[in-house]
Write a structure and sequence with these properties.
Number of helices: 4
Bound molecules: N-(2-fluoro-benzyl)-4-sulfamoyl-benzamide, zinc ion
Radius of gyration: 17 Å
Helix content: under 10%
Number of strands: 15
Shape: globular
Largest sheet: 13 strands, mixed
Order of helices and strands: HEEEEEEEEEHEHEEEEHE
Structural class: mainly beta
Length: about 260
């Protein structure tokens, strides 16, 4: 059986029963209120070195669609900004809704986007494995990118055209040579704050870097994400994968910093 999900019985409102940290002091996502954020002049730009990028496979883990990378060396790293070390790219995945304007996890002044892309990195300088980093307060760095609807995104088609291969929970397929740099907006101005994984086990180990400008994708491309299933091939009850987002959590006195002028 599934430990947690996004339904009525197993969704975000009951995660605290099995994962008490859900009610902790640095939970994610949050509502970002721009005029309450502080400018930190010491915050430099984030730098992505994705050129030797090596995606390996695409998978349906029953909660989202995930593209995984070879993180055995520092070939794809994020550095700078609020980070004291380079953080290694491990995977990226998406969160989305059931139509148009809802689906992102972070919100900006109460406004949701249609979807949110998470590029997940871990601190391989201080920790030996992703699992170890995922329980450390400075172990992970997740770059969040908002998706708004409009024209087709030329490169997202490479992902949406592969989704038929990972329709069911537990399915995976080769997905080599995809460089997620093509999914980034032109400006990497960002907000940053200390938070958590937005799904169980909800570890409070994430330095969040939320990019201000969204990328634009088409409703048709988002619709293809919704053809994925939460359920496995062997299950008779087919449940469409949609609304796989956690709502904003309490700030509990945290400071949100911004980098852009
Ligand atoms: N939505 S997000 O905040 O970007 C997010 C990123 C990564 C994970 C993850 O790796 N979970 C599995 C996991 C957790 C802890 C240790 C090992 C794991 F594989 C969960 C949520
Ligand atoms: Zn995520």
């Amino acid at each position: 059986g599934n430990l947690w999900g996004y339904g009525k019985e197993d969704g975000p409102s009951v995660w605290h029963k099995n994962y008490p940290v859900a009610q902790g002091d640095r939970q994610s996502p949050i509502d970002i209120v721009p005029h309450q954020a502080s400018h930190d002049p010491s915050l430099g730009p984030v730098v992505l070195n994705y050129d030797q990028c090596t995606s390996i496979k695409i998978a349906n883990n029953g909660h989202s669609v995930v593209v995984e990378f070879d993180d055995s060396d520092d070939r794809s790293v994020i550095r700078g900004g609020p980070l004291d070390n380079p953080y290694r790219l491990k995977q990226f995945h998406f969160h989305w809704g059931v139509k148009g304007c809802h689906g992102s996890e972070h919100t900006v002044a109460g406004n949701s986007y249609a979807s949110e892309l998470h590029l997940v990195h871990w601190n391989a300088v201080k920790y030996t494995t992703f699992g170890e980093a995922a329980t450390a307060p400075d172990g992970l760095a997740v770059l969040g990118i908002f998706l708004q609807t409009g024209d087709d995104h030329r490169w997202l088609n490479m992902i949406t055209d592969a989704l038929y291969t990972v329709k069911f929970k537990g399915s995976a397929a080769d997905f080599k040579g995809f460089n997620p740099k093509c999914l980034l907006p032109s400006s990497l101005h960002y907000w940053t704050y200390l938070g958590s994984l937005t799904t169980p086990p909800l570890h409070e180990s994430v330095i969040w870097i939320v990019v201000k400008d969204p990328i634009t994708v088409s409703e048709k491309q988002l619709g293809k994400l919704r053809t994925l299933l939460f359920t496995g091939e062997e299950e008779d009850q087919r449940t469409r994968m949609e609304n796989n987002f956690r709502p904003p959590q309490l700030l509990k006195g945290r400071n949100v910093l911004w980098s852009f002028r």
